[in-house]
Structure formats: C-alpha cells, structure tokens
Design brief:
Layout lengths: L6 H29 L6 H36 L4
Helix pairs in contact: 1-2
Length: 81
C-alpha cells in the first residue's frame, strides 16, 4: 500500500488549507486595519485577499508535490518502500 498522495488530493488539501488560512488572515487583517485606524475599501481588501490566496494556493500545492516526490526518491534510495 502506497502512502503517496494523488495530485487531486494534493490540490484538495492545498485548497482547504488556503481557504482556512484566508478566513483567518482576512479576520486578522480587518482587526489590524481597525486597530491601527487604516482606511482600506472593502473592494481593496477583497482584491488583495484574492491575489494573496492565489499565490498561497499555488505555493501550497507545489510544496506538497515537491515533498511528496522527494519522499519517494528518499524511500527508493534507502529502500524504505
């Protein structure tokens, strides 16, 4: 039985991770803006959130795939699998 994760499951995990992170970051940012009396429009917050979310999703997916493949290579090199 393989412990490797499929590309589809990597994408689903990355998406869930980014969604949860987005919700936490959005709440934290709103609190930070309010606390520091920073004026930013709702549309501006939404736009910035979308850009950072897209970057985070790609980063998370690529790192997951990299480490998944790295684990397979290390396992083969040391005959762990």
């Amino acid at each position: 039985m393989s412990n490797r994760q499929s590309r589809t499951m990597s994408a689903i995990e990355a998406g869930a991770n980014v969604l949860i992170g987005y919700l936490i970051a959005t709440g934290t940012a709103a609190l930070w803006y309010w606390w520091n009396n920073i004026q930013i429009s709702t549309a501006g917050q939404f736009e910035l959130g979308l850009i950072l979310t897209a970057v985070s999703l790609v980063r998370s997916y690529l790192l997951r795939r990299y480490f998944n493949n790295l684990g397979g290579l290390i396992g083969k090199a040391f005959k762990f699998r």
